[in-house]
Amino acid sequence: MRWQSSEQVATIPMRLVGPVKIQGPEMDAEVLIPLATYETPLWPTTHRGAKACNQAGGIKAVVLDERMTRSILLEANSAIDAASLIARLHQQKDAMQAVIKETSRFARFLDMHHQVVGNLIFLRFEFNTADAAGHNMATLAAERLLNWIVTHHPDLKYVSISGNYCTDKKVSAVNGILGRGKYVVAEVVISPEICRRFLKTTPEKVVQLNIKKNLIGNIIAGGVRSANAHFANMLLGFYLATGQDAANIIEGSQGMVHAEVRGEDLYFSVTLPNVIVGTVGSGKTYDFVQENLKLLGCLEKREPGQNARRLAIIAASAVLCGELSLLAAQTNPGELMKSHVQLERRKVSEDNNRA
């Protein structure tokens, strides 16, 4: 079979939802959020969540941490040799920073973690990659560090540029614990009146469903650092609309909902420790992507990294809106299926009429 080198374009329906009011250290604005998806109900349900949040005064969001990672894999002669190497490397971080300066004017070495299995050494490098998502930047920096290590320690053997301790596009605990991408929290406080009018539910029902479905349900399912209903839906729609690597929803959707009743109000939050987004780099050159990034205010002249942090906050806000709306719907028997059937049938009918 011959690889087809000519580029083709896959058309994915896209709509704007909102606007959504978002406040925090990185931004204070009202934005329309583009979502590209084949799942028709995603637009109205996320829009409903946005309306409820706006009525409540908007969403507050913050980036708590950011780092892109790549792990290399080396082989020592023995576990004792491996331990000795690791001790020396932790004393050479300034030298390692100097090595990666040659790879990019934006890449910055943050930290390093290790695991040893027998005589195998797994080194997890962490970098700040400014406004890029940073896959290639981190890999190039890790490759230079790998070459530097084996040059200075010729008794070591190269095994792989990626040892799966990164962890890239796979479910793992390490990403949620140590972070990969942007660690974002978005939150909102909603009155019982707004809950009843826009979400057709009560704060108490949402909190109880979150405990019983998201928390207990994910525990018995064996979920890995996850307690949510459908983070992946909003993330995928947002990633496709803004030119991100869509496979990163695997680690990106590992997040948690925390909800509680405060007085009579509903406090609702989403925590996403692995939002991997960028405003420059691969996938960002398409016209529709540029239009969407401009719409979101993520192509402005700012300090390196600020546009990407803004984009991550908007992504988390979209997740909050969609998650809140779905959980509200699931507190009412039959509402979820009824809305899906109505919307999907209407969409099929519209498609048939166009055909």
Q: What structural category characterises the helix and strand content?
A: alpha+beta
CATH topology of the largest domain: 3-hydroxy-3-methylglutaryl-coenzyme A Reductase, Chain A, domain 2
Report the CATH architecture of the largest domain: Alpha-Beta Complex
In percent, how much strand structure appears in the residues? 15-25%
Q: Determine the number of helices (DSSP H or I, runs of at least 4 residues).
A: 12
Q: State the name of the first-level CATH class of the largest domain.
A: Alpha Beta
Name of the CATH superfamily of the largest domain = 3-hydroxy-3-methylglutaryl-coenzyme A Reductase, Chain A, domain 2
Query: Mean pLDDT across all residues, rounded?
Result: 92
Order of helices and strands: EEHEHHEEHEHEHHHHEEHHH
Q: How is the main sheet built?
A: 9 strands, mixed
C-alpha termini separation? 33 Å
What count of structural domains? 2
Query: What percentage of residues falls in helices of 4 or more residues?
Result: 40-55%
Low-pLDDT runs: none
Topology:
Layout: E1 14-23, E2 28-36, H1 42-55, E3 59-75, H2 79-89, H3 93-100, E4 108-117, E5 120-128, H4 135-152, E6 157-160, H5 174-178, E7 181-190, H6 192-199, H7 203-221, H8 231-241, H9 249-252, E8 256-262, E9 265-275, H10 287-295, H11 306-330, H12 335-354
Parallel strand pairs: 1-3
Antiparallel strand pairs: 1-2, 3-5, 3-6, 3-7, 4-5, 7-9, 8-9
